[in-house]
Amino acid sequence: MCSKEETVNPSQDWRRLLKRGVAEIIVEDEMVKLLESGRPLRLKQGFDPSRPDIHLGHVVGLRKLRQFQELGHQVILIVGDWTAQIGDPSGQSATRSMLSAEEVRANAETYMRQFFKVINREKTQVVWQSEWFAKFGLADVVRLTSKFTVAQFLARDDFAKRFAAGRPIAITELLYPLMQAYDSVQVQADVEFGGTDQKFNCLVGRELQQMMGQRQQQVFLMPLLVGTDGVQKMSKSLGNYIAVEEPPDQMYGKVMSIPDSLMMGYFELLTDISDDELEEYRKKLSEQCISPMLLKKRLAREIVAQFHGEAPALEAEAGFERVFQKREAPREAQEVTRELLERLQEFSRRGIEPMVAMGTVGQPPREYLVSLSLLLVEAGVVKSRGEAKRLIQQRAVEVDDSTAINDDCRISLGSTIRVGKRRFLKVAED
Q1: How high is the pLDDT of residue 1?
Q2: In this structure, are 343 and 311 located in the same domain?
Q3: The whole model's pTM is what?
Q4: Does residue 128 share a domain with residue 76?
Q5: Where is 57: in which H helix or E strand?
Q6: Is residue 391 left, alpha or beta, with left meaning phi > 0 and alpha meaning psi from -120 to 50?
Q7: To which H or E segment does residue 397 belong?
Q8: Is residue 228 part of a domain?
């Protein structure tokens, strides 16, 4: 924690932090005055370890915190080990299931390991909610709840919609904003950071601080990152996420899969590329003077390098080019051996599967007519023949760049089998 004697150089560096990747600041004029004072600010960011992983949507706010850290401000990272057991109703249309304390603590340890890939561990104060809520008694709960009305909380958009539709709202959910607000009181936050879906909770914190005789925190809201589907916010439950601990090749591939319309937003929120360069990219895209593919590869490199380093990012790019542009199998493609094909041939002799080996007289066969669905199951690419047959029907299986349209398929030694976009089998040459 910064001492009272410490100061921050009130240079112009912080002004760019109030513009790029910011949805709203409440109250911006007051925020500017705090930054101009040169006093190290206490920047609060809370997280609920309701799941074990974080994704690039979380990184948007963490990057902003790191940027303020670099100017000398203090980040207070609050582990919501109590609020996670309730579940934040922000943006939810139903009540949330409660987690056990053991599940929350295990998730928190994983979360923090991933957070410190972005923010500076040495410049971060980690605080657990249980430091104060574990001491709460019924009288403390009553005093806290008496400061707000049910009507105030039902005015919140997600609560209002559920109430109007007759859907249940648990009393514990009404406690959530109060508990988050009380965190701000306990750490005497100068600024609270969050996504736009956290606006209500953060404003409750401002009000509670004032009631408790503290200076009201400023609220720093970041945009919600749109997921890889190009429609909804990034979310693990929606499956449109890019996790920060994904292997380099998978992270690179997922970035390359986002719609072109999301590229500039990802550049702005997730990279350190200068505003001038981004403006140049926007202009070239609008004038169709640059390939979107070229820009997206730059974006993917930048993001992968943040979490894995420059060399793995370049390797991931080379792998992407081999697989998706040159249509080659990845180097780590799973191998199908001649022995497997011969074993499947033995099944055909028993009348189990139609399979004929073809080759010259006196020479081992180099081509096999196989049941492709059985081969995919035996190779461990899919769990069942039913799944394999559905993929074949969906034209999602290729053999040597030709779409497989039937279960019976000719497979040669050295063939490459692609299942979906990222699963490959390579048949051994011998």
Answers
A1: 42
A2: no
A3: 0.71
A4: yes
A5: helix 56-69
A6: alpha
A7: strand 397-399
A8: no
**Own/partner pairs for 131-134, CB < 8 Å, 24+ apart?**
131/186, 132/182, 132/186, 133/82, 133/179, 133/182
For helices 248-256 and 310-320, give the axis angle rounded to 10 degrees.
Answer: 60
Instruction: State CA 202 to chain mean position distance.
Output: 22
- Whether residue 232 is contained in a domain is answered as no
Residue 282 lies in a domain: yes
List the beta bridge partners of residue 410.
Answer: 369
CATH number at residue 420: 3.10.290.10
Whether residue 171 is found in the same domain as residue 29: yes
Is residue 69 packed enough to be buried (19+ CB in 10 Å), middle (13-18) or exposed (0-12)?
Answer: middle
Task: Give the separation between CA 287 and CA 140, rounded to whole angstroms.
Answer: 61
Sequence-ordered list of residues with C-beta below 8 angstroms from that of 42, at least 6 positions apart, any chain = 73, 74, 76, 187, 188, 189, 190, 191
Contacts of 72 (CB under 8 A, 6+ apart): 2, 6, 7, 8, 9, 40
The dihedrals phi and psi of 130, each to the nearest 5 degrees, come to -60, -15
Say if residues 128 and 77 touch (Cβ distance below 8 Å): no
Residue 292 in domain: yes
Domain hosting 355: range is 334-427
Examine the domain organization and report whether 146 and 255 are in the same domain: no
Looking at the structure, tell me whether residues 416 and 348 fall in a common domain: yes
Percent of the chain with pLDDT over 90: 36
* 3 state SS of 88: coil
Domain of residue 139, CATH code: 3.40.50.620
CB environment 131-161: b (16+ within 10 A), e (fewer)? ebbeeeeeeeeeebeeebeeeebeebebbee
pLDDT band for position 282 (50/70/90)?
A: very high
The H or E element that residue 192 is part of is strand 191-195
Domain boundary, last residue among 325, 358, 387: 325
